[in-house]
Write a structure and sequence with these properties.
Blueprint lengths: L25 H14 L4 H8 L6 H8 L8 H8 L2 H13 L1 H11 L3 H12 L8 E2 H10 L4 H16 L9 E2 L12 H7 L15 H14 L9 E5 L15 E2 H6 L3 E2 L9 E5 L9 E3 L1 H9 L3 H14 L16 H13 L13 H14 L9 H6 L1
Antiparallel strand pairs: 1-2, 3-5, 3-7, 4-6, 6-7
Helix pairs in contact: 1-2, 4-14, 5-7, 6-11, 7-14, 8-9, 9-10, 10-11
GO molecular function, one term: peptidoglycan lytic transglycosylase activity
Protein name: Lytic murein transglycosylase
Keywords: Signal
Length: 389
């Protein structure tokens, strides 16, 4: 089964967010949207028809608050998402849409595995695209005061798609966070990067794989993908090294990693490329070098574990072996992680929301405390660290 659509909870649009009001009466809020639409040039009849049936969706708000999936460690997460069936269907789709992937490679320099992995994780190759009414979801999240700056512009982007004949307010469905289609793109991203890959005159991300794949490729390209360069490579580590060099914010040329004893587990590498050493479960667990293209993944989704798993699955679809899980120290439970975050905050660190999720800020704080306490500074929190704090 496909991972719940909560995976796309933190998907960010490439568009610039604007300040917007939120809260209060939902009907008054919708009227305000209609007024703003007409003020921006949409005729009154079109605006009225677009917003006519919009309703607040309580299930959207419930999904927005449910983030438990992000508490899983990388190995568990990856094994849950990457099945033999997904591998086989990925290979089958690579052959079925070979001409589309050839065009993508020629135009954007993006390997098939990259888009196949997104396609698999977001919608199980189009099989489960979400059944939330997209307009209801967008307006509900724009009205909610948690992230209105992200979702209000998407309402007006959906209105533009409606004017083009590519959005039906009553029938367009998708993820709870407003993403549409096989690779789950927000309306503004469809406006900016939508491609008519099959030549029928419309951008149909829900029904046309060529449209979805070409649009996803264009979006990655606009987000900064460097053509022809790698994104992630599994490596083996020496028995000893300064683990404080690990982490997404520390970058060295591959030649320097090589001098420290880091080696590619398979394939070749470019000694001049910059890369970061990623140890998702500490120095005893899986190890990867992340190249500049890896950072582009965070423009698509903000979850570290999701991004790493998607990048790794892209490698697998390109022929890489199954990663070596190693023998990492056991991680913390959700409750322990919250306790750790509270202790880090008490020491002056900004870990963001105390949510039991090992995010980027928590990792940085953990690594700093490991250094202070003389522990291996690999940013992987253990019960030993929790006890010492």
């Amino acid at each position: 089964m496909r991972l719940p659509l909560a995976l796309t909870a933190l998907l960010l649009s490439a568009s610039t967010a604007i300040a917007a009001p939120c809260g209060g009466s939902f009907s008054a809020f919708v009227q305000g949207l209609r007024d703003e639409a007409t003020a921006k040039g949409t005729d009154a009849a079109t605006a009225k028809a677009f917003f006519a049936g919009v309703q607040q969706d309580a299930k959207v708000l419930k999904a927005d608050r449910a983030q438990g999936v992000f508490q899983l460690d990388f190995t568990t997460f990856a094994r849950r998402l990457i099945s033999n069936d997904r591998m086989k269907r990925g290979q089958s789709n690579a052959s079925k849409y070979a001409s589309t992937f050839d065009r993508i490679q020629q135009q954007h320099g993006i390997a098939p595995g990259v888009l196949l992995a997104f396609w698999a994780f977001e919608t199980d190759y189009g099989a489960f695209q979400g059944d939330f009414n997209t307009l209801n979801a967008l307006v509900t999240l724009a009205h909610d005061c948690r992230r209105p700056q992200l979702f209000r512009p998407q309402v007006f982007a959906a209105l533009e798609l409606y004017k083009h004949g590519d959005f039906d307010p009553a029938r367009t469905t998708g993820a709870w966070a407003g993403e549409i289609g096989m690779v789950q793109m927000l309306p503004q991203d469809i406006l900016d990067n939508g491609v008519d890959g099959d030549g029928d005159g419309h951008v149909s991300l829900k029904t046309s794989a060529p449209d979805a794949l070409m649009s996803g490729a264009k979006m990655l390209s606009h987000l900064g993908w460097t053509p022809g360069q790698p994104w992630l490579q599994e490596v083996t580590l020496p028995a000893r090294m300064d683990w404080s060099h690990s982490g997404i914010d520390t970058t060295h040329p591959v030649s320097e990693w090589q001098a420290m004893g880091v080696k590619p587990r398979s394939g070749k590498w470019d000694a001049q490329l910059p890369a970061s050493l990623i140890l998702p479960q500490g120095y005893k667990g899986p190890a990867f070098l992340a190249y500049p293209n890896f950072n582009v993944y965070f423009e698509w989704n903000q979850s570290f574990t999701y991004v790493l798993t998607a990048a790794y699955f892209a490698n697998r679809l390109q022929g890489a072996p199954v990663f070596d899980a190693g023998n990492p120290d056991p991680g913390l439970s959700g409750a322990q992680m919250k306790q750790l975050q509270q202790k880090l905050v008490a020491r002056g660190y900004d870990v963001g929301k105390i949510d039991g999720i090992l995010g980027a800020n928590t990792r940085k704080a953990v690594q700093a405390e490991q250094l202070r306490l003389g522990l291996p500074a690999d940013a992987w929190p253990t019960t030993e660290l929790l006890g010492k704090l």
